[in-house]
Amino acid sequence: MERERYRLVFSGSGGQGVITAAIILAEAAVIYEGLNAVQSQSYGPEARGGATRADVIISNRDIRFPKVTQPNVLVCLTQEAYNKFSATIRPGGLLLSDSQFVKPERKVDARQLGLPMHETVMDRLGKSIVYNICVLGATLGLTRLVSTESIMKVLGKRVPPDLLELNKAAFEIGLELAEGSEKPEFRGQRSEVSQQRNP
Protein backbone atom coordinates (compact mmCIF):
# COMPACT_ATOMS: atom_id res chain seq x y z
CA MET A 1 0.00 0.00 0.00
CA GLU A 2 1.28 3.47 -0.84
CA ARG A 3 1.71 5.32 2.42
CA GLU A 4 2.55 8.78 1.16
CA ARG A 5 0.36 10.18 3.93
CA TYR A 6 -2.24 8.47 6.08
CA ARG A 7 -4.29 10.28 8.70
CA LEU A 8 -5.98 8.27 11.45
CA VAL A 9 -8.22 9.21 14.36
CA PHE A 10 -8.98 6.82 17.21
CA SER A 11 -11.92 8.13 19.24
CA GLY A 12 -13.86 6.88 22.23
CA SER A 13 -14.10 7.47 25.95
CA GLY A 14 -11.47 7.72 28.64
CA GLY A 15 -10.42 4.26 29.78
CA GLN A 16 -10.86 2.56 26.39
CA GLY A 17 -7.18 2.87 25.58
CA VAL A 18 -7.43 4.78 22.31
CA ILE A 19 -4.32 6.83 23.10
CA THR A 20 -2.25 3.74 23.83
CA ALA A 21 -3.39 2.16 20.55
CA ALA A 22 -2.35 5.29 18.66
CA ILE A 23 1.05 5.39 20.35
CA ILE A 24 1.73 1.73 19.54
CA LEU A 25 0.85 2.32 15.88
CA ALA A 26 3.05 5.41 15.64
CA GLU A 27 6.00 3.65 17.28
CA ALA A 28 5.67 0.67 14.95
CA ALA A 29 5.69 2.97 11.92
CA VAL A 30 8.76 4.94 13.03
CA ILE A 31 10.93 2.33 14.73
CA TYR A 32 10.29 -0.73 12.58
CA GLU A 33 8.91 0.55 9.27
CA GLY A 34 11.25 3.51 8.72
CA LEU A 35 8.36 5.93 8.24
CA ASN A 36 7.63 9.33 9.74
CA ALA A 37 4.78 9.53 12.24
CA VAL A 38 3.31 12.01 14.69
CA GLN A 39 0.78 11.33 17.42
CA SER A 40 -1.36 13.73 19.44
CA GLN A 41 -4.36 13.44 21.72
CA SER A 42 -7.14 15.39 23.38
CA TYR A 43 -9.31 14.62 26.40
CA GLY A 44 -12.79 15.46 27.58
CA PRO A 45 -13.39 17.18 30.93
CA GLU A 46 -13.38 13.88 32.82
CA ALA A 47 -10.14 11.95 33.13
CA ARG A 48 -12.01 8.67 32.75
CA GLY A 49 -15.27 8.28 30.88
CA GLY A 50 -15.05 11.57 29.00
CA ALA A 51 -14.48 11.88 25.27
CA THR A 52 -10.97 10.99 24.14
CA ARG A 53 -9.35 11.35 20.73
CA ALA A 54 -5.92 10.31 19.48
CA ASP A 55 -4.55 11.35 16.09
CA VAL A 56 -1.83 9.59 14.10
CA ILE A 57 -0.27 10.74 10.84
CA ILE A 58 1.98 8.27 9.02
CA SER A 59 3.98 9.36 6.00
CA ASN A 60 7.12 8.66 4.03
CA ARG A 61 7.61 12.43 3.84
CA ASP A 62 8.11 15.16 6.42
CA ILE A 63 5.04 15.95 8.52
CA ARG A 64 4.63 19.65 9.21
CA PHE A 65 1.28 19.73 11.02
CA PRO A 66 0.49 17.11 13.70
CA LYS A 67 -3.30 17.48 13.86
CA VAL A 68 -5.70 15.44 11.73
CA THR A 69 -8.57 17.46 10.27
CA GLN A 70 -9.88 14.95 7.72
CA PRO A 71 -8.88 11.35 8.50
CA ASN A 72 -8.47 8.57 5.97
CA VAL A 73 -9.28 6.16 8.80
CA LEU A 74 -11.65 7.02 11.64
CA VAL A 75 -12.22 4.61 14.54
CA CYS A 76 -15.24 5.33 16.77
CA LEU A 77 -15.78 3.31 19.94
CA THR A 78 -18.72 5.27 21.38
CA GLN A 79 -21.85 6.83 19.94
CA GLU A 80 -20.67 10.22 21.15
CA ALA A 81 -17.44 9.85 19.21
CA TYR A 82 -19.32 8.77 16.09
CA ASN A 83 -21.73 11.68 16.32
CA LYS A 84 -18.89 14.13 16.84
CA PHE A 85 -16.34 12.96 14.27
CA SER A 86 -18.07 10.94 11.52
CA ALA A 87 -18.65 14.00 9.35
CA THR A 88 -14.89 14.62 9.21
CA ILE A 89 -14.01 11.41 7.34
CA ARG A 90 -12.12 11.91 4.09
CA PRO A 91 -14.12 10.81 1.01
CA GLY A 92 -13.27 7.23 0.17
CA GLY A 93 -11.91 6.57 3.65
CA LEU A 94 -12.73 3.95 6.27
CA LEU A 95 -14.97 4.51 9.27
CA LEU A 96 -14.62 1.62 11.72
CA SER A 97 -16.90 1.39 14.74
CA ASP A 98 -17.75 -1.10 17.48
CA SER A 99 -21.15 -2.57 16.67
CA GLN A 100 -21.94 -3.04 20.38
CA PHE A 101 -21.65 0.65 21.15
CA VAL A 102 -22.23 2.54 17.90
CA LYS A 103 -25.22 2.75 15.61
CA PRO A 104 -24.23 4.35 12.28
CA GLU A 105 -26.71 7.14 11.72
CA ARG A 106 -25.11 9.13 8.93
CA LYS A 107 -24.54 8.55 5.27
CA VAL A 108 -20.93 9.46 4.63
CA ASP A 109 -18.80 9.25 1.50
CA ALA A 110 -16.72 6.43 2.95
CA ARG A 111 -16.83 2.77 3.86
CA GLN A 112 -18.59 2.28 7.20
CA LEU A 113 -17.91 -0.97 9.01
CA GLY A 114 -19.09 -2.08 12.45
CA LEU A 115 -17.32 -5.01 14.14
CA PRO A 116 -18.16 -6.69 17.48
CA MET A 117 -14.73 -6.00 18.92
CA HIS A 118 -15.57 -5.53 22.59
CA GLU A 119 -18.08 -8.37 22.62
CA THR A 120 -15.60 -10.79 21.05
CA VAL A 121 -12.77 -9.83 23.38
CA MET A 122 -14.97 -10.36 26.41
CA ASP A 123 -16.36 -13.66 25.10
CA ARG A 124 -12.95 -15.11 24.26
CA LEU A 125 -10.58 -13.47 26.72
CA GLY A 126 -12.78 -11.98 29.43
CA LYS A 127 -10.46 -8.98 29.83
CA SER A 128 -11.56 -5.53 28.72
CA ILE A 129 -8.06 -4.20 29.42
CA VAL A 130 -6.95 -5.47 25.99
CA TYR A 131 -9.96 -4.14 24.09
CA ASN A 132 -7.84 -1.38 22.56
CA ILE A 133 -5.34 -3.91 21.22
CA CYS A 134 -8.16 -5.78 19.50
CA VAL A 135 -9.28 -2.47 17.97
CA LEU A 136 -5.72 -1.88 16.77
CA GLY A 137 -5.63 -5.35 15.25
CA ALA A 138 -8.88 -4.77 13.38
CA THR A 139 -7.63 -1.40 12.13
CA LEU A 140 -4.39 -2.92 10.87
CA GLY A 141 -6.20 -5.89 9.37
CA LEU A 142 -8.32 -3.54 7.29
CA THR A 143 -5.59 -1.08 6.30
CA ARG A 144 -2.20 -2.89 6.40
CA LEU A 145 -0.55 0.40 7.29
CA VAL A 146 2.24 -1.40 9.12
CA SER A 147 3.12 -5.07 9.42
CA THR A 148 1.85 -7.39 12.11
CA GLU A 149 5.45 -8.11 13.03
CA SER A 150 6.13 -4.44 13.75
CA ILE A 151 3.16 -4.22 16.11
CA MET A 152 4.23 -7.39 17.89
CA LYS A 153 7.70 -5.95 18.44
CA VAL A 154 6.27 -2.81 20.01
CA LEU A 155 4.01 -4.90 22.24
CA GLY A 156 7.04 -6.90 23.30
CA LYS A 157 8.76 -3.72 24.48
CA ARG A 158 5.76 -1.97 26.03
CA VAL A 159 3.71 -4.72 27.65
CA PRO A 160 4.70 -6.45 30.91
CA PRO A 161 5.78 -10.06 30.25
CA ASP A 162 2.86 -11.54 32.18
CA LEU A 163 0.37 -9.68 29.94
CA LEU A 164 2.12 -10.11 26.60
CA GLU A 165 0.32 -13.26 25.46
CA LEU A 166 -3.04 -11.73 26.39
CA ASN A 167 -2.26 -8.65 24.30
CA LYS A 168 -1.09 -10.77 21.37
CA ALA A 169 -4.30 -12.79 21.55
CA ALA A 170 -6.40 -9.61 21.50
CA PHE A 171 -4.48 -8.32 18.50
CA GLU A 172 -5.06 -11.60 16.67
CA ILE A 173 -8.79 -11.38 17.43
CA GLY A 174 -8.87 -7.96 15.79
CA LEU A 175 -7.11 -9.32 12.72
CA GLU A 176 -9.59 -12.19 12.54
CA LEU A 177 -12.57 -9.85 12.76
CA ALA A 178 -11.15 -7.70 9.97
CA GLU A 179 -10.54 -10.74 7.79
CA GLY A 180 -14.03 -12.06 8.47
CA SER A 181 -15.61 -8.76 7.48
CA GLU A 182 -14.35 -9.23 3.93
CA LYS A 183 -16.24 -12.51 3.50
CA PRO A 184 -19.69 -12.63 1.83
CA GLU A 185 -21.34 -14.19 4.89
CA PHE A 186 -20.32 -11.30 7.18
CA ARG A 187 -23.28 -10.18 9.30
CA GLY A 188 -21.92 -7.00 10.86
CA GLN A 189 -22.74 -3.42 9.95
CA ARG A 190 -21.43 -2.46 6.54
CA SER A 191 -22.19 0.48 4.30
CA GLU A 192 -19.94 1.09 1.32
CA VAL A 193 -21.03 4.42 -0.12
CA SER A 194 -17.86 5.15 -2.02
CA GLN A 195 -14.51 3.51 -2.60
CA GLN A 196 -13.04 6.50 -4.42
CA ARG A 197 -9.93 8.07 -2.95
CA ASN A 198 -8.98 11.69 -3.29
CA PRO A 199 -5.61 12.26 -4.92
> What is the structural class?
alpha/beta
Mean pLDDT: 88
CATH architecture annotation: 3-Layer(aba) Sandwich
Helix segment tally: 6
Biggest sheet, spatial arrangement of strands = 2-3-1-4-5-6-7
Q: How many beta-strand runs? A: 7
Cα distance, first to last residue? 14 Å
Q: Unreliable stretches, pLDDT < 50, 5 or more residues?
A: 184-188, 190-199
Largest sheet: 7 strands, mixed
Which descriptor suits the 3D outline? globular
CATH topology: Pyruvate-ferredoxin Oxidoreductase, domain 3
In the CATH hierarchy, what is the superfamily? Pyruvate-ferredoxin oxidoreductase, PFOR, domain III
Strand content bin:
15-25%
Task: Describe the structure in your own words.
The protein is α/β, with parallel strands linked by helices and 199 residues long. It has a single domain, classed as Pyruvate-ferredoxin oxidoreductase, PFOR, domain III (Pyruvate-ferredoxin Oxidoreductase, domain 3, 3-Layer(aba) Sandwich), CATH 3.40.920. It contains 6 helices and 7 strands. The protein has a 7-stranded mixed β-sheet with strand order 2-3-1-4-5-6-7, with helices on both faces. Helix 2 (79-85) links the parallel strand 4 and strand 5. The longest helix has 21 residues, at 161-181. It starts with a strand and ends in a 7-residue tail after the last strand.
